[in-house]
Amino acid sequence: MDAQGRGRAENIDPADQWVLNPNTGDYELRLSPSAGQSAVPGPRRPSRSAPRPGARGRDGRRDERRDEQHGVPGQRRRRAPQPEAAGGRRKQKPKKSKGKKVLTWTGGVLAFVLVSGCAGAYLWYQHLNDNITSIPDDGAGTGGFSKDRAINILVMGTDKRTGKGNTKYGDKESVGHADTTILLHVSKDRTNATALSIPRDMITDIPDCPTTMEDGSKKTIPGSQDVRFNESLGQSERTPSCTMRTVTKITGIVPDHFMVADFNAVKTLSSAVGGVDVCLAKDIDDPDSHLKLSKGKHTIEGEDALAFVRTRHSVGTGGDLSRIELQQQFLSSLMRKLKSNDTLTNPKKMISLAEAGTDALSVDSKIADIMKLRDLGMELGKLDMKNLSFATVPVVDNPAEKITKATVVVNEAKADPLFAMMRADESLTEVKKKEKKEKAAIAARLKGSKADPSEVRVNVYNGSGKAGAAQTTLEWLQNSEGVLKSSQLGNAPSDMKKTTLEYAPDQADQARRLADIMGLPGSAMKPGKSEKNAQGLPAIKLTLGGDFKGAGVPISAPSKAPEGIQKVEADKTVCAK
């Protein structure tokens, strides 16, 4: 009988039978309270070609070798006495910190608060796998996250009234919208992360979206101009892949994956951790969200938790931007609860999270598998909470609306630097980043003497995909920056994502000067060899890439967030006003 069945047969909660083994760091299933009972490790994915564990031979006896291959102990044998090491004691392997092993095992549940339970899939692999709803990404993502680069996950909350008890919130026939949208960016070295909220009432353009329909057929859904961002999901048959494309168009960041949660996600996840701690700076009685709480600290779950994240009229300015701040405070608190020892060392809560997370979420087809979600979660679990910042796309009131003020538009002066920081892995918090030899070497390329602009000889190529980019750059260099020995040699052999500057060792001073003029990061500088210019003289080679924004516009990202952007640090407790 399996763990779940045995627990029910004996009127014992299956979660109570999972015990942390301090020697291995794994949770193990104790099938009997008797001291002699062996432990069964958490389920692993079995090999399709391997013999079935527990199979019996022709003589009717269990094949213990097969059992051991599958992690199922066979009959115990008495071990021969082991020789003692010098000093009369056996030599023991050093033990890892128990807390560290627990964090490692549970790293999966820290993927992000809305996907928390998914990565705890060691417990019931097939059962949890069956819980997952998969939706095609239609080629809108990168094709999958990688352990050696930054990770970008688009988390969407739909206001579709599916699930038990949710029709009472009105508009029960709606196909839903992108009601809450967060782009989670985790840096390549996993030292910092930014969770960027995108206002649902922000006016934007939605691109054409190639889409796989429910019946498996494919069609391209026409784009829309000057519409609310929330129409990128649900409306006109748009799926999450269309929201992905819209976010890429806005931020320049291509998400690796998406995850969609409904109202039940907030209710079930908050209950699974035993409630979420929130703080109010005033009494709230909101008839629209049905939230009624007094000033001070509270622990909320279920319907109260959903009411909290839906509240807007009773906090801040009473609009969606105030609701976003409330949601960020709630998510920060929920993440702190997830990372607390009270959750990480409690198998019952971990199982509840796994059930709640997989049941309430829909994910893209590239990670619609428990083991892939676990791998993703283990990567994201490396992040320190103090280095996670929640921010909101900077916006201003829509100038086209003179009276209602119901929508907003992107504040490009603040949004563009913020997007550039995320693309460049720049943290919004003060983080002591991991120093690596590679980073130090790249930074060193910008240090040293610089040639006078009049001595810089450079050939400019256009690999940006933007017509005329090389010519406008050439004119700017010659007329505005004094780089007179410059030539424009047309298009590069192919388009490039990044701008590069290749130079020979004896041209490093010229390259540093040009990098300074162009605002290039050290990573753009490529030591190599020179080429000849139109006069047959050695010249450095500048190839404009997709990150080129225009002549005179720095390519390197700012190291400090723009002043005045809305931001919440995940390790800080904030009281809603």
Stretches with pLDDT under 50, minimum 5 residues: 1-18, 31-123, 433-438
Beta-strand portion reads 15-25%
What is the topology, as strand order, of the major beta sheet? Answer: 4-17-12-5-6-7-18-27
- Number of helical elements: 15
Q: Radius of gyration in whole Å, from Cα?
A: 28 Å
Structural class: alpha+beta
Average pLDDT rating: 76
Q: State the end-to-end CA separation.
A: 53 Å
Tally of strands: 27
Share of residues in helices: 25-40%
Structural write-up:
Strand 2 and strand 3 (39-41) form a beta hairpin. The chain has 577 residues and is α+β, with helices and mostly antiparallel strands. It starts with a helix and ends in an 8-residue tail after the last strand. It is elongated and about 75 Å long.
